């Protein structure tokens, strides 16, 4: 490749990255970003395959994959299950501890392709690892830029999500202080509660809404996963939430259905079909 061709390829690489980052910025939730992160990296980093893993409490766990995923298998490029950071390969350990990216040389098992491991970071710690498999020379600046943008987006959306949940809790708290006779404060749909009370007063014969309508959008997501048989820890991993937050949503589901326990709630919602 001559200098002109190299320069043209470089521009195309940055153009592809810009397009991927523009798509990334359209994500409105942590869940949506998690679902799209690897697919966008395949395009934005010019990769054959991409894997994204989370780093939590000293454990590196695989999460998402995209592209020609078979390139991630030879030689255990990416683990099939959680691995303690202290037991991870040297490259991954160094990236997690330094927050900097490292590349592995071309591997015969990968058809001469190289693997670059990039840290996905928040302002104060490493959130995860991005593995990018590509033929020829990998542009580390492009991959590091993508990983940095991904970390920033996860942090931003996480803050927005927590702020929205806290705002809702505060609104319920203020409602409770204004009317001490109101039922105990819980994370349920306050506006719907008001509509139900109004309808019941004006027309006692009117039918009540479905059980699902008494839940917020996030609580309905938790409910669907409860109905699928997932545990709180599994729900937390799927929705990228803290387990404590999932427990709070489960309590709201129980209260909305009048259930005495988790099994009772699943039975009631399954029976209602709403």
TL;DR?
With 274 residues, the protein is α+β, with helices and mostly antiparallel strands.
Write the layout of secondary structure elements.
Blueprint: H1 3-24, H2 30-44, E1 49-56, E2 59-67, E3 83-84, H3 90-98, E4 102-107, E5 113-121, E6 126-134, H4 140-178, H5 190-202, H6 217-227, H7 232-239, H8 243-257, H9 262-272
Antiparallel strand pairs: 1-2, 1-6, 2-3, 4-5, 5-6
Helix pairs in contact: 1-2, 1-4, 2-4, 6-8, 7-8, 8-9
Q: Describe it for me?
A:
This protein is of the alpha+beta class and 274 residues long. It is built from nine helices and six strands; from the N terminus they run ααβββαβββαααααα. The protein has a six-stranded antiparallel sheet, sandwiched between helices. A hairpin with a 5-residue loop joins β4 (102-107) and β5 (113-121). 29% of the residues are buried.
Regions with little confidence, pLDDT below 50 for 5+ residues: 1-9, 179-208
Distance between the termini: 61 Å
Helix content: 40-55%
> How many E-type strands?
6
Distinct helical segment count:
9
């Amino acid at each position: 490749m001559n200098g002109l061709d190299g320069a043209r390829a470089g521009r195309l690489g940055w153009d592809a990255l810009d397009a991927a980052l523009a798509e990334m910025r359209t994500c409105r939730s942590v869940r949506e970003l998690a679902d799209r992160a690897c697919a966008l990296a395949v395009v934005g980093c010019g990769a054959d395959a991409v894997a994204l893993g989370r780093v939590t409490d000293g454990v590196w766990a695989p999460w998402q994959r995209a592209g020609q995923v078979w390139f991630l298998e030879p030689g255990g490029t990416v683990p099939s299950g959680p691995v303690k950071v202290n037991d991870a390969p040297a490259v991954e350990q160094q990236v997690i501890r330094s927050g900097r990216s490292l590349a592995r040389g071309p591997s015969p098992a990968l058809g001469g392709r190289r693997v670059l491991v990039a840290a996905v970071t928040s302002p104060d710690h490493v959130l995860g690892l991005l593995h990018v498999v590509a033929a020829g020379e990998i542009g580390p600046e492009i991959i590091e830029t993508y990983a940095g943008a991904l970390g920033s987006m996860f942090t931003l959306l996480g803050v927005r999500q927590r702020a929205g949940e806290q705002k809702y809790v505060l609104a319920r708290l203020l409602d409770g202080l204004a009317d001490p006779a109101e039922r105990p404060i819980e994370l349920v749909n306050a506006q719907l509660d008001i509509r139900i009370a109004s309808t019941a007063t004006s027309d006692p014969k009117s039918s009540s809404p479905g059980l699902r309508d008494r839940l917020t959008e996030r609580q309905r997501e938790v409910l669907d996963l409860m109905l699928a048989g997932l545990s709180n820890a599994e729900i937390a991993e799927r929705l990228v939430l803290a387990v404590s937050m999932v427990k709070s949503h489960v309590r709201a589901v129980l209260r909305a259905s009048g259930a005495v326990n988790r099994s009772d709630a699943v039975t009631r919602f399954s029976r209602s079909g709403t």
